[in-house]
């Protein structure tokens, strides 16, 4: 696949795919803002319900035109997104988190930019916190041996958002200018359907976290240039579908180790995984010295669960899929 063969302006219907896991109220609030995000482009809502709190039924009642897919178990993010896209009819795929609020016209501006600049392939926006401050998680730098060494030595924490010592943060850039980026995250991501299909969607080896970095890496290898469009702005409450920060960090680390093993050669990947473990251990030790057991202590104590990556981490952290068709809760 090359960018020239798959690139093209999105036309017609855009499919907004939302994956939810026991976040009924947040999901309904997010979906209520989607329509105002468009001005001229028609769209459809495709909601994949991984949970058991009745979100699917509530969405059907509130938005009868939405396509609701009830997974029957917790499929994780990648499988659920791919399932939603399989039910989508649009010429473009737009991933949106259920813990977001779309600002008026934001999605239209994202789609319009993609139409005018088709060579990028993957398009992200700018995310804000509820207080209006920039939430940098709409995009990231790619991991490297240097960035992981900085993590292992604690430099990414000591010099947070430093371009040199915390390179994956992309520095102090406020996501307020158009910029090509290594990783567009799945909280807000648009791709024309031909590009999505040519890339093969999300890699279902990932359960939660890391799949968007993998997609961005494959896009870059195909000659595409993922980009952030600051006029496409949403409000994002981070991590609505995970129960605790310690648990979430375990999932993030599992995603990172999986990403390294699937995208790097064996020897560098092994070094990278070791550096991740070293960084977790350092932070856990510092928490203990301060007289408290915090989130990194949880990550360190459960390192046997996340270090192997997926699929091992899925069962170790979430438990095996339930046999009665309902996924295990975190």
From TrEMBL:
Residues 15-135 form the Glycosyltransferase 2-like domain. SUPFAM superfamilies: Nucleotide-diphospho-sugar transferases (SSF53448). It comes from the Bacteria. This is Glycosyltransferase 2-like domain-containing protein.
């Amino acid at each position: 696949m090359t960018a020239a063969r798959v690139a093209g302006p999105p036309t017609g219907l855009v499919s907004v795919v939302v994956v939810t896991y026991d976040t009924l109220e947040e999901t309904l609030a997010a979906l209520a803002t989607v329509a105002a995000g468009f001005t001229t482009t028609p769209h459809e809502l495709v909601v994949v319900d991984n949970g058991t709190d009745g979100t699917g039924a509530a969405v059907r009642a509130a938005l009868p035109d939405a396509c609701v897919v009830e997974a029957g178990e917790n499929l994780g993010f990648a499988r659920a997104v791919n399932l939603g896209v399989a039910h989508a009819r649009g010429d473009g795929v737009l991933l949106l988190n259920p813990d977001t609020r779309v600002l008026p016209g934001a999605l239209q501006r994202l789609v319009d930019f993609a139409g005018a600049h088709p060579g990028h392939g993957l398009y992200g926006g700018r995310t804000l916190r509820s207080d209006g401050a920039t939430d940098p998680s709409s995009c990231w730098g790619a991991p490297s041996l240097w960035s992981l060494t900085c993590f292992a030595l604690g430099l990414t924490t000591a010099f947070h958002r430093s371009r040199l010592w915390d390179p994956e943060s992309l520095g102090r850039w406020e996501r307020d200018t158009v910029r090509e980026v290594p990783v567009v995250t799945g909280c807000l991501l648009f791709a024309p359907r031909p590009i999505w299909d040519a890339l093969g969607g999300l890699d279902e080896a990932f359960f939660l976290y890391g799949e968007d970095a993998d997609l961005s890496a494959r896009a870059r290898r195909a000659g595409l240039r993922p980009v952030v469009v600051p006029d496409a702005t949403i409000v994002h409450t981070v991590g609505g579908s995970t129960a605790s920060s310690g648990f979430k960090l375990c999932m993030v680390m599992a995603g990172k180790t999986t990403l390294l093993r699937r995208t790097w050669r064996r020897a560098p990947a092994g070094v990278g995984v070791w550096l991740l473990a070293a960084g977790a251990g350092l932070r856990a030790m510092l928490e203990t010295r301060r007289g408290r057991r915090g989130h990194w202590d949880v990550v360190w104590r459960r390192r046997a669960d996340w270090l192997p990556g997926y699929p091992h981490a899925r069962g170790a952290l979430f438990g095996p899929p339930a046999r009665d068709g309902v996924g295990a809760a975190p």
